[in-house]
Amino acid sequence: MAVLLFIAASPKSLLRLEQAEELRSIENAIDAGKYGAWLAVVSRGAARHEDWVRLVSREQPDIVHFSGHCDRDGHLLLAADDGSFTRVSPALLARSFVTLSGNVRLVVLSGCQTLTTGRAIESIIDNVVVTTGNLEDRAAIAFAGPFYRAVASGVSIQRAFDEAKLTLEADLPEQAAFLRLLEREAGLAEKTRLLAEQIQPSRSSSDVPHELSELPTEAIPEPAPLLPQSRMPLAVNPQFVGRQAELRTLAESINARGAEAIGQVVAVTGMGGIGKTQLASAFVHRYGPYFPGGVFWLSFADPASIPAEIASCGGPGHLALWPADAAPGLTTQVELVRAAWREGTARLLVIDNCEDESLLKIWRTTSGGCRVLLTSRRRRWSTNVTTLALDVLDRPGSIALLRTFRSDLSAGDAALHAIADELGDLPLALHVAGSFLRRYRARWSPGEYLAQLRERALLDHPSLAGHGSEHSPTEHELHVGRTFALSLERLDRENATDAAARDLLARAACFAPGEPIPRRLLSPSANGEADELEAELEIEDALARMVDLGLLDMPEDNAYVLHRLLAVFASQALRDAMATARGAVECTVADEAKRINLIGYPALLLEWQPHLRYITDRAALRDDAYAAFLCNQLGFHLREIGHYWEAKPYCERALAIEETLRPDGPSMATCLGNLALVLQDMGEHGSARALQERALDISETHLGSEHPDTATSLDILASLLKDMGELAAARPLCERALASSRR
Q1: Distance (Å, rounded) from C-alpha 603 to C-alpha 263?
Q2: How many CB atoms lie within 10 A of CB 180?
Q3: Which of 21, 443, 566, 609 is least surrounded by CB atoms within 10 angstroms?
């Protein structure tokens, strides 16, 4: 691991510099480099001379980047305790490098007029970037990005400098002219490839495992260089966290023995944004060296490009199946590569974004030593495929991911936990949120960002559209809504099953996000009647279609889960269908709640009570009959399980709605009676009596004295009077109720 020490000093008495933006540019550039994971950035702002000494001694950096001011005599101007500055002479700076660290290979003096300082250390440091004029903030930032991206990609210091300066010349030619590269000896900058030298040292054949059987399944290896013939476009992601159990599962599945190993295929499945490609990439960088035939990464996102993807694995630099100056036609290239893959050598083929099972059947290898790891939103596979269904990150993993962007925040920060909860622990959403928090750290705190997420429709926040994010470790789009749209767009409105899937997705979006939805609530059963069997089959096919597209998860039989962010997306994308879906869901939920309440066994409702609450709370904002009905059923249920204080406001809301709709109707009597029971249980007997007497009066007027509901009202009122000690008043009511029940 190489270390870049970023030391910033902008004393209050001098012109303030955009050093945070310069640091952000450097960090993002390193993240984008091929070997960026092996270059750690340690930063220190408002640095004093003692900070310089301590950090250089402790960190033993390979690169030192100074961002700050320099005077005409070459003194670095570091901060002082009183807000002014102290001068560090070029000679003192040189002695600090000689005394404290022999590791430094590159020093970048990003300030004005730093040539004199650079001259003082060029005989000690291999490569020094200096300025010969007044370098502006925008120029320092514009240079740092491409320079460190190139360094993190393993190119020479000279080439990195030339590329960055050329980039700067396009917009700020006069500023680019100030930059110079000093080297300790002629030609050294062209030879120095900092990360390539450290990460890819020469390895003897004994260093490389030649047997797949040596692949570890308990301890997870650290990232290591792949064999040179490999084709792997994705660099190690320094933001990869967690997933230890999943990596072990993949290692065990890929390392199957005997006949099972022939054509072994393991699929990582899950919704868009859950981190399938990232897990596959992490597996490759940790376990890839155990495949002596190399690793070959293929994208199946565009079926038309698959032959070209395969052919690119056979050329010079990879399998070298043909000379660079005499390549055969594309078809022949593909056949040569596939023939090589059918050999007995153990190779790992990674097929990214394979959503069509027929493509796997066409292109998979069925003989030889290749193992296949694929990523897909598709959960079900009819061929012999071992699947690993990926879930969202656990909460510690979510916090760890956010802290890769903001290491200054505590793991116990309440705002970080609330942000993770708001985003449903979805890795893609956490990545863009972390990027936003890092880029705008000086403007908004995590708490303020959380408030923004809650103030608007969640997916409408600019951060979830990628604002503030510059680099995707998997080269996927950093836009949560568009990631979900890729799945929805695969549903053909003209196809009956897909049309039913869209309707069911709209229904699912009406339930409590993230909670298991019982099958009978998501789509009422056709009860097995012959004339409805075809419609029932279509519903089952539609549900399976949504699972395959990653729009729904099915963690258990007869229950489905819609991620909270997908629920927001579906509500927006299917806006025209939501009103109909909401009405259907309210009807289904209310009827099922009433059925269970009449049975008198509230435990049956507890498993999906969160949905009843969620749907009722939203309906309660209206003043219609269904809103009252839902409030009444939820209030009744809460009273049944002894939650009287929670039941009371729902019963009161139901009563208030009925007062405006049908103040003397039978449903009004039901609402009065339910609230009276709650008040009775709470000891408010006087208020309960008045309500129950009114309920009895309505029942007798509209239903008659012999109706069962009237008998129930008589019985409830008698019980209340008994509790109040008015036994004489209760007796005739009991006698009337008994007489009514005998008729």
Answers
A1: 48
A2: 15
A3: 443
Pairing between β-strand 386-389 and β-strand 265-269 as defined by DSSP bridges: parallel
Q: According to the model, what pLDDT value does residue 707 have?
A: 66
Neighbouring C-beta atoms of residue 601, cutoff 10 Å: 10
Q: Report residue 129 as tokens.
A: 């970037």
What are the residues facing 8 on neighbouring strands?
67
Pairing of strands 559-561, 517-518: antiparallel
743 pLDDT above the threshold of 70 = no
Dist. CA 28–CA 701, nearest whole Å: 76
**Does the pLDDT value for residue 528 go beyond 60?**
no
The two structure tokens encoding residue 601: 């066994």
Triad 14, 15, 17: Cα angle to 5°: 120
Cα within 13 Å of Cα(730), Cβ side: 14
3-state SS string over 223-277?
CCCCCCCCECCCCCCCCCCCCHHHHHHHHHHHCCCHHHHCCCEEEEECCCCCCHH
The whole-angstrom separation of Cα 118 and Cα 111 is 11
Sequence-distant (6+) residues with CB within 8 A of 191 are 156
> Who has greater pLDDT, 708 or 127?
127
User: How far is 223 from 286, CA to CA, in rounded Å?
Assistant: 4
Q: Provide the 3-class DSSP secondary structure of residue 222.
A: coil
Write down the residue that tokens 């408030």 correspond to.
451
Q: Distance between CA 379 and CA 335 in Å, rounded?
A: 30
Nearest to 97, CA basis, from 87, 107, 108, 110? 107
In 3D space, the residue among 6, 21, 7 whose CA is nearest the CA of residue 440 turns out to be 21
Pairing of β 39-44 and β 76-79? unpaired
